[in-house]
Design brief:
- By secondary structure, the protein is an all-alpha fold.
- 70% of the residues lie in helices and 2% in strands.
- It has 10 helices and 2 strands.
- It has a two-stranded antiparallel sheet.
- A hairpin with a 6-residue loop joins strand 1 and strand 2.
- Helix 2 runs parallel beside helix 10 and helix 3 packs antiparallel against helix 4.
- The protein is elongated, with a radius of gyration of 22 Å.
- The two termini are 16 Å apart.
């Protein structure tokens, strides 16, 4: 499930810290902004699946008859003997995508711990958790993305190596307590992970049929205008919600912009002063918020 976040509170904290000369407070907000970008990515995947689900819902609503499959729980239009597709992105691919988002989130959390007044015991726990993540990451979890976003073995292995490197870099950083060094060392690996996620986003966006919106809207309108067997009020409410969402184009642009902003903000932490770093982290938070809001519009109302 996507993680909800308070953008207003995050931006306020960034503005309050802008007058300081220390980049540390901004890095604390960097962790929160990364969580927001992760939420935007999850919302994008959910929106893709909702588009497919809406089309299937219209097929049910516009059917003169329906039938129940052998499992006694799945309802399909009469004459169809298998369940309708309920998603664009299958669960194993969602799990693989989450396996790439998790180390990026862990990186943000570790930077947050490093930049704040964190107790030694908490730092030790973070070091231990990141060590385990780095050493136990299983490349095979990315197998469902083979030829589906990460088309070659080299790309899969490259992203998997970057995940492990991120963990090892942060383990070292939590020991040295050097935020800028951590950001500098993590930058190439963040770029690899983000580039991989964007390839994945582009692939799954392409799996949504080009005519899904037109087909969904047309079917909903036909059912609405059926004078022989007019829809109930409740059906009309459902149909209206479905065609309104179907009319809105769905692309990976927002999610990719938020992912790119992670890399840009991290570069600013590594190479710029506190003012520039805070500005880029604020831009990351805004990009993540915009993307999350746009994708949540596809969720059922």
């Amino acid at each position: 499930m996507p993680i909800k976040f308070g953008l207003a509170a995050l931006l306020a904290a960034l503005l309050l810290s802008a007058c300081t000369s220390n980049v540390q407070p901004a890095v604390t907000q960097f962790g929160s902004a990364i969580v927001a970008a992760q939420s935007a990515e999850s919302a994008f995947i959910s929106a893709l699946n909702q588009k497919q689900l809406d089309q299937d819902s219209v097929r049910i609503l516009t059917s003169a008859k329906v039938t129940i499959l052998a499992d006694k729980s799945t309802v399909v239009p009469f004459g169809i003997n298998k369940a309708l597709a309920t998603s664009v992105v299958p669960q194993d691919a969602v799990d693989a995508i989450n396996s790439l988002l998790k180390p990026v989130q862990a990186y943000g959390q570790a930077m947050q711990a490093l930049s704040g007044d964190t107790a030694a015991a908490t730092l030790d726990t973070n070091v231990d958790n990141l060590s385990k993540q780095a050493s136990t990451f299983d490349t095979s979890v990315l197998t469902p993305l083979g030829a589906k976003g990460l088309p070659t073995a080299a790309e899969i292995n490259g992203v998997a190596t970057a995940v492990k490197d991120i963990g090892n870099i942060i383990v070292a950083a939590l020991i040295s307590k050097d935020v800028k060094a951590a950001a500098t060392n993590a930058q190439p690996d963040l770029k690899k992970i983000v580039a991989g996620l964007e390839l994945i986003n582009s692939y799954w966006s392409g799996q949504l049929p080009n005519d899904v919106s037109e087909v969904t809207i047309s079917a909903a309108v036909v059912r609405w205008n059926n004078s022989t067997n007019p829809p109930s009020y409740e059906e009309k409410v459902a149909l209206k919600g479905i065609w309104e969402k179907a009319a809105v184009p769905l692309t990976a642009d927002g999610a990719n912009k938020a992912l790119d902003a992670i890399v840009t903000a991290n570069a600013a932490i590594a190479n710029s002063g506190p003012v520039a770093a805070k500005a880029q982290i604020q831009a990351l938070a805004q990009a993540a918020s915009d993307a999350y809001s746009s994708y949540k519009a596809f969720a059922p109302k």
